[in-house]
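Hi V.,

Quick status before I head out on leave. The structure for the redesign project is tokenized and pasted below; the design run finished overnight.
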């Protein structure tokens, strides 16, 4: 499964290096301002927590023109910091290689997984090149469960502002949890740890030249690990400092990419999730601690206006997707004064299940279908924000937990309407 993923010069460097136990992968594209900090954090973490294990830091770059590659080469540990940790038996090597194929994270990960195979690495951690909050402790938390406890996939668990990550909170987390029966709080968190066993499995899939590799790589990896019974856990990493956006801005594309990927994977693994009811916790490593978070501003007026206009203008589209009782409730909500606007958990869950069913049945063009979910999603976020305006982060998390339970309770609605393949029988009830 080589397919010229790695060029000859890179293979020669890997051959000279020999086998390693640990790889830290850093996909990048024009991250000169931050990647040096990330590389130094990786080196420090590896030397501090895994001094006796041979490690390799790999920057898989997508054609940066801003000096990113030079910043990687120049990133060096302070001498005193190096001397203050246990003396390593092996140095931490650095290797920079371009990745080929589609210009996206999937191509970078394919490169990293292939390097893990060639070097026989036991564990691989992948972190973003633009992280400002990264700390050396992250690498113990992402790699330790794989190396010491034989987990195959380590998802990140971050503290986030109550209005940050609303696509995850309202759709991706509760739906993935209800489908596959494991509570992985951030299934599209970005950073992760992975075993060579799972990385090699993912390399065998024919997704690397598709839109899944371009847009939905994180949820695909998480879903594959859950649906195929790999050992999955989470590690608490604190805050992830990154550029946040108003949840009401520029969302249609992200919904098509992420939610469309979730819906598509439902077809791949329907024989699995149709037999799952309820959910179990995924083990969590690290000690959750409070962190300061930047507030996320939202524009309620714009969200509500988008929702109200869509319920008027897209009614023929929604009639082909949404069941009559749900559609009537959406119309009633659209007619309410803004101060009284609210969507119930039960209504929202039924709408998401209707969209999943419509996607599967191809009632309309799939991209148009998911894009038409955007204004309804904005209405849900507005409703959620109004109810949670004066709540603490812990109270909001309880609210999300209640939403997840509704997804699980109403799952038979989805199962009973999902068309079975020939010869299959339902066993969940």
């Amino acid at each position: 499964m080589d397919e010229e993923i790695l060029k000859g010069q890179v293979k020669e460097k890997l051959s000279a290096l020999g086998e390693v136990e640990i790889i830290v992968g850093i996909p990048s594209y024009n991250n000169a301002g931050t990647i040096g900090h990330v590389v130094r954090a990786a080196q420090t973490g590896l030397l501090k927590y895994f001094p006796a294990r041979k490690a390799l830091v790999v920057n898989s770059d997508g054609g940066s023109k801003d000096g990113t590659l030079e910043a990687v080469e120049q990133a060096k540990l302070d001498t005193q910091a190096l001397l203050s940790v246990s003396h390593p038996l092996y140095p931490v090597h650095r290797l920079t290689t371009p990745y080929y194929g589609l210009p996206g994270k999937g191509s970078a990960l394919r490169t990293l997984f292939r390097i893990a195979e060639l070097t026989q690495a036991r564990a691989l951690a992948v972190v973003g090149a633009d992280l400002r909050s990264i700390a050396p402790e992250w690498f113990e938390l992402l790699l330790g469960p794989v190396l010491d406890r034989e987990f195959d996939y380590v998802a990140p668990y971050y503290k986030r502002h109550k209005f940050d990550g609303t696509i995850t909170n309202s759709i991706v987390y509760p739906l993935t949890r209800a489908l596959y029966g494991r509570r992985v709080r951030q299934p599209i968190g970005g950073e992760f740890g992975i075993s060579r066993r799972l990385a090699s499995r993912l390399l065998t899939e024919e997704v690397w030249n598709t839109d899944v590799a371009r847009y939905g790589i994180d949820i695909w990896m998480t879903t594959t690990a859950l649906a195929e019974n790999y050992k999955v856990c989470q590690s608490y990493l604190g805050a992830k400092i990154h550029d946040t956006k108003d949840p009401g801005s520029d969302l249609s594309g992200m919904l098509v990419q992420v939610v469309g990927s979730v819906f598509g994977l439902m077809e791949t693994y329907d024989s699995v999730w149709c037999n799952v009811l309820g959910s179990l916790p995924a083990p969590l490593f690290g000690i959750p601690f409070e962190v300061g978070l930047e507030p996320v501003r939202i524009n309620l007026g714009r969200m509500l206006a988008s929702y109200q206009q869509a319920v008027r203008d897209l009614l023929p589209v929604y009639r082909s997707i949404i069941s009559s009782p749900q559609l009537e409730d959406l119309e009633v909500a659209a007619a309410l004064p803004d101060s009284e606007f609210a969507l119930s958990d039960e209504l929202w869950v039924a709408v998401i299940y209707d969209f999943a069913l419509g996607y599967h049945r191809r009632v309309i063009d799939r991209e148009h279908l998911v894009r038409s979910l955007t204004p309804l999603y904005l209405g849900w976020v507005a409703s959620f924000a109004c109810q949670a305006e004066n709540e603490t982060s812990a109270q909001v998390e309880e609210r999300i937990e209640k939403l997840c339970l509704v997804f699980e309770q109403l799952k038979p609605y989805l199962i009973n309407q999902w068309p079975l393949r020939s010869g299959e029988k339902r066993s969940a009830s």
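Above is the designed sequence. Strands lie at 22-28, 55-61, 92-98, 123-126, 153-159, 182-183, 192-195, 232-239, 280-281, 284-285.

G. will cover questions while I'm gone.

Best,
W.
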